[in-house]
Amino acid sequence: MIIGNVEVKSLTRLAPMAGISNAAFRMVARECGSALTTSEEIDAQGIFRKNAKTRYDIANYLPEEKPIALQILGADADTLVPGAQWLQDQGADIIDLNMGCPVKKITKTGRGSALMKDVAKTSKILEAMRNAIEIPFTIKIRSGWDEKHVNAVEIARMAEDVGVDAITVHPRTRSQQFSGMSKWEMIAEVVDAVNIPITGNGDVKSMSDARRMVAETGVESVMIGRGAMGKPWVFDESFESLTDQAKYDYQTRVINRHIQLIIELFPEHFGLVQMQKHLSWYAGGRERVRSFRVQLFSARTYDETREIFDKYWESVNPKNAEQLDMAVV
After folding, report:
1. What is the pTM of this model?
2. How far apart are CA 110 and CA 132, in angstroms?
3. Which residues are registered as beta bridge partners of 144?
4. Mean pLDDT of the 27-52 span
5. Residue 180: pLDDT over 90
6. Domain finish residue from 202, 235, 268
7. Domain of 256?
8. 3-class SS string, 246-313
9. Annotated catalytic sites, by residue?
10. Same structural domain for residues 213 and 89?
């Protein structure tokens, strides 16, 4: 897929997720096969007010991540325009506007999916942003505000008219949040309605799901969000064909790389939260995970966290199960 002058070189890519899609996780996903990655939402107000956390923590990315899309969050052109220009100056290859976040604290201020409620007002915002930046400009939307106001096609046509270069569609309404099954047919309707590239997002948990979404909707690209949490290897076509031991060894390398990046990139008070959260997800679906998580979240340092995880992770090594089976025989 081509977005403006940026080539998206593989089918799937990591979705922007607040508090999750930071530089460490994006880099790990990239190394597992994710194409172009997108930052978590960056508050336009924070940029406008020169908030240090917004500007230099959330908006931070690694040189190896380029090309990268930086996602901006806001409700009016007065902050979104200078915010987008600042992100462009920081080296963003694409500016993406968040029009899909369903969280109440975001939508009550007119941001996120609330932008889908007033098409005329949002059209003016998009036009102002398009005129202010030179790099490709994309948006991420939902199917609508609620079941009575499903207007993704209308929004997509408007966005194309004002010069938006590509659109990502998550086919749940704001009122659905993340519950229920996403309606992929809505993505297909948007694909049929416009001539710009469309990316699909929602209920994709594997590469086979991604290929099925392409077949059913006609999208050119697929974003994976929650399906990549604790499983960044979802982007690797070869992973599912590996033996259990090879999968475990692959996962171990990825987890160690992620831990290394967290320690290198973040101060410990923030990195510890990230490390424990992601290690908890990495352990998901395995034996004795509940008791492990209790111990994990009681740790107070990187070293203590790593010691608890390493002990647990070694206990679920398929090699140990094989040795136990041999002993029983």
Report:
1. 0.93
2. 21
3. 150, 173
4. 91
5. no
6. 235
7. 242-325
8. HHHHHHHHHHHHHHHHHHHHCCHHHHHHHHHHHHHHHCCCCCCHHHHHHHHCCCCCHHHHHHHHHHHH
9. 101
10. yes
Rg (CA), the chain: 21
Which pLDDT value is given to residue 321? 66
**Does the structure show a pLDDT above 80 at 51?**
no
Structure tokens belonging to residue 274: 């990230």
* Count of domains forming the chain: 2
Chain mean pLDDT for the chain = 93
Distance CA 25, CA 229 (A): 9
| pLDDT value for 308 | 97
* Mean pLDDT of the region 274-281: 97
Q: At what angle do helices 244-265 and 302-315 cross, to 10 degrees?
A: 180
The strand pairing partners of 224, in sequence order, are 14
The Cα 92–Cα 58 span in angstroms is 13
Phi/psi at 200 (nearest 5 deg)? -100, 155
Q: CA 275 to CA 144: how far, in whole Å? A: 35
**Do 254 and 222 have their domain in common?**
no
**Predicted pLDDT of residue 322:** 58
